[in-house]
Amino acid sequence: MSHKVAIIGSGFAGLSAACTAAAAGCEVVVFEKNSSTGGRARFFSDSGFLFDMGPSWYWMPDVFEDFFARFEKKVSDYYSLDRLDPSYRVFFDDNTELDVPASLSELKVELEKLEKGSGQNLDKFLAEAKVKYETGMNEFVWKPSLSLMEFANFKLIRESFRLQLFANMRSHLRGYFSHPKILKLLEFPVLFLGAKPSKTPALYSMMNYADIALGTWYPQGGMAKIPEAMTALAIELGVKFELNAEVQSIEVNNGRANALVVNGNKHTFDSVIGAADYHHIESKLLTKEHRDYDEAYWSKRVMSPSSLLFYVGINKKVDGLLHHNLFFDESFDQHAVQIYDTPQWPEKPLFYVCCPSKTDKTVAPEGCENLFILIPVAPDMSSTEEERNYYFDMCIKRIEARTGSSFMDNIVFRKSYAHEEFVADYNSFKGNAYGLANTLMQTAFLKPRMRSKKVKNLFFAGQLTVPGPGVPPSIISGQVAANEVLKYLNIQAPLSV
Questions:
Q1: Conformational region of residue 431, where left means phi above 0, alpha means psi within -120 to 50, and beta covers everything else
Q2: C-beta of residue 64 within 8 angstroms of C-beta of residue 226
Q3: How far apart are CA 361 and CA 50, in angstroms?
């Protein structure tokens, strides 16, 4: 008799968990509160434009390839992938731009123009970052981090020092480079990791390796092609999906979750994986005596930023933009303070613009442009229509000024999305967009546990548990959680991690 496994949420973690459990012979049902799978990576269309709603960067392609390979599939079985070159454009505060080439040798030439010796230093920096990436991806991220003892062997202790967990990104980078533009370029991934460079472990220079060495890619048709592919694979493996199916409670008897109440109906299972918002599952779906963490615990968590997003359709082409564009034309430090230290709406924010219509003809009508604008902002804030309009106008004016392309009067579609929508659509804790900040005290076994201490067959996956936020880590998280479920059910996983 097959074991029944319920999965709450169909984001990347939920989908990868579903595939892993189903491949081992489990009867898997995924409950999704929204009308489509994909979680934050959903899409919508309007006025001929197709908008990815959330993730827009395709980094760490090896993680996606490895995932599909576990099921004897390839990425190319589901979608077409192109490497972007240049990877992205950075707009600086002195009215200059830097196009980051896909070629490392070309990038070194560009950096040498800014700082003599930086090309050679980049080689050294990336060699060290490669060690972190390969060690982290091969050793650390696949551990469920249920106990410190998982890391208590000589090899991992030795590797932890090489990973520089106790150094910070700010000082680490300044050991190689001094030019402010190079530092901004290499610090930018940290803005989305949830802490200032001075508070982020130097371990995360591995993200620079992912960026520069492994490249920036794009799936034709948009990022939503990834969860679409994972959903198709899950269905091939026998997974059943219940959409518009909001889980209202988890029933616990004798320390076991034996049923979910969904839209008023009870469904029994042998094990449950909570791949939706961890805080929501604990605080809303479980009774108080079955929660591992109280509100005092959650209130002390350091969260990654939320985002103010704009989806914009323009009935003309916009010159001066690439697919990915970073507007670093204001102070990074001031914006970071207004996210992390004194949370408030930023005075002069940095922002990011994705223009996928530069690469993909299917996301906008012919002769038109599709823009996705993202401003990182502090979590747990409310916004008024007036505030959203203010930031929209600010961004459009700055884009127009830097590109020399006037298009405000050519906007035929616009939609905003912020904290309130993150809460309504994803039950997101404090309206966060990326999960927990990647600080030292929120790393590995110091994150919320993947397995409940009080409900023996309840497991968690996603960006509020290990290994952390981001698309590739979420895909890994689902696989690790599913394998922990298989261990609990005494099932030999046919696909090892």
A1: left
A2: yes
A3: 10
Give the C-alpha separation, 310 to 330, whole Å: 19
Q: Which amino acid is at 288?
A: K
> What gap in Å lies between CA 360 and CA 364, rounded to an integer?
8
Q: Please identify which residue in the block is written with the tokens 């370029």.
A: 185
Distance CA 182, CA 108 (A): 11
- Average predicted confidence (pLDDT) for the chain: 95
Using an 8 Å Cβ cutoff, are 3 and 487 in contact?
no
Do the Cβ atoms of 307 and 377 come closer than 8 Å? yes
What phi and psi values does residue 303 have, to the nearest 5 degrees? -95, 150
pLDDT (0 to 100) of residue 156: 56
Percent of the chain with pLDDT over 70: 97
Closest CA to 98 of 280, 325, 314: 325
Tell me which amino acid residue 372 is.
F
Q: What percent of the chain has pLDDT over 90?
A: 88
Residues 312 and 411: their CA atoms lie apart, in Å, by 7
Query: Can you tell me the distance from the alpha carbon of 48 to that of 365, in angstroms, rounded to the nearest whole number?
Result: 6
End-to-end CA distance of the chain: 25
CB of 416 within 8 A of CB of 114? no
Overall size of the chain counted in residues: 497
Rounded CA-CA distance 233/39 in Å is 17
Residue 291 · residue 454 · CB < 8 Å: yes
Q: What is the 3-state secondary structure (H, E, C) of 324-382?
A: EEEEECCCHHHHHHHHHHCCCCCCCCCEEEECHHHCCHHHCCCCCEEEEEEEEECCCCC
Structural tokens at position 274: 């909570």
Q: Tell which residue, 255, 236, 201, has the closest CA to residue 438.
A: 201
pTM comes to 0.97
- Beta-sheet strand order (sheet of 256-262): 247-253, 256-262, 265-268
Give the closest residue to 192 by CA, choosing from 323, 59, 345: 59
**Which residue's entry shows tokens 């990973």?**
163
Is 497 a residue whose pLDDT tops 50? no
